[in-house]
Amino acid sequence: MKTLIFFFLLLTLISCSKNEPFAVKTEVNASLMEVIPEDAPGNSKSVSVKSDTVPAKNDSIAKKIIKNGEMGLAVANINEAKSKVDGILKKQNAYTQSETFSNTETSEDLNLVIRVPHENFDQLISSFADGIGAVEYKNISSEDVTEEYTDVAIKLENKRIYLEKYRNLLKNAATTKDMLEIQENIRKLEDEIDVAEGRLRFIDDRVNYSTLRLSLSKEKPRSSVTSKIGFGSRFTDSVAQGWNIFVSFVLGLISLWPFFILAPFIIMVYRKWRGRKKSTFNDSSHPNNKD
C-alpha cells in the first residue's frame, strides 16, 4: 500500500514540473492582454482601465483662447509709418514674422504679419489705431480651443501609461512572437505620442502669441502719375492710338467681305422681283386686259 501511494505522489510531481513552463507563458500573455487598451494599435478587444491611472476630463486646465486679427491703415508715408510700428512692437514685446512690400502706379503697400504676446494684443491694436494712420478696416477673432487641448492632453497621458506598461512587458516576454508584437505596439505608441506633443506645442504657441496681419497703404495722387510723361510722348501715344483705331476699323471692314460679294446679287434679285411684281400689278389693273 505504501508503495502504491509513493508511486502516485511521484507521478503528481512529474506532472506539475511539466506544466510549469506553460503556466508562466500563460501568465505573460494574460498580462499582455490586460494592458492593451481598446484603442491601442493592433488590438480589437475591450479592456477596462483603472480610473486612478487616467486623468479626469474635468481636471483644472487654464482657458486656451487663440486671438487673431487683421487691420488696415492708410498712412501718409510708408517709411515713417514703419518706424512707428517698429517702436510700438518693441514696447509690446512683439516681433514681425514676415514682411511684404509692393509699389504700383496707384499705391504703396506694406503687409506685415506680427506675433504679439496675447496679453498685449489689445494694447497693440489700440496703439496702431491711435498713432500711425487712419483705420480702413479691422477684424478681430477669438477661438476657444480649451476642449481640444484637454482631449489631446488626456489621450497623451493615457498613451504614456500604456507605453510604460508595454516596456515592462517587453522585459518578461516569453516568446519571440510576443516580443515582436510588443515592440511594434511600442513603436506605434511612440509615434502617436510625438504627434500629440507636437499638437499641444502648436496650440500653446498660438495661444501665447496672437497673430495680427497689418497692412500699411499709401495712395498716390493721380496727377503724379501723368506729370512724369512729357507732351511729346503723349502726342506720339495719341497718334499711335489713332492709327491703331483706323487699322482696327479697316480690318473690321475686311472681315465683312462675304457680305460685299453677296450684296450685288441680293440687290439684283430683289430688283427683278420688284419689277415682275410691278409688271403683274399693272397688267391686272389695265382695262384693255379684261375680256
Could you explain how this protein is built, in words?
The chain is an alpha+beta fold and 291 residues long. The protein is 60% helix and 18% strand. A 5-stranded mixed β-sheet has the order 2-3-5-1-4. A hairpin with a 3-residue loop joins strand 2 and strand 3. The longest helix is centred in the N-terminal third of the chain and has 34 residues, at 2-35. The chain is elongated and about 125 Å long. The protein starts with a helix and ends in a 6-residue tail after the last helix.
The biggest sheet, with number of strands, parallel, antiparallel or mixed sense and barrel status, is:
5 strands, mixed
Which structural category fits the helices and strands?
A: alpha+beta
Which spans have pLDDT < 50 for at least 5 consecutive residues?
4-8, 13-58
DSSP strand count? 5
Strand fraction equals 15-25%
Indicate the mean pLDDT.
77
What is the rounded Rg?
A: 45 Å
Trace the largest sheet across and list its strands. 2-3-5-1-4
Shape: elongated
The number of helices is 8
Taken in chain order, the helices and strands follow as HEHEEHEHHEHHH
- Helicity, in percent? 55-70%
What is the rounded distance between the termini?
164 Å
Question: Which labels suit this protein?
Answer:
18% strand; 291 residues; single chain; alpha+beta; five-stranded mixed β-sheet; 8 helices; 60% helix
Secondary-structure blueprint of this entry?
Blueprint: H1 2-35, E1 65-74, H2 78-91, E2 95-103, E3 107-117, H3 121-131, E4 134-144, H4 146-171, H5 176-208, E5 209-219, H6 222-226, H7 231-254, H8 257-285
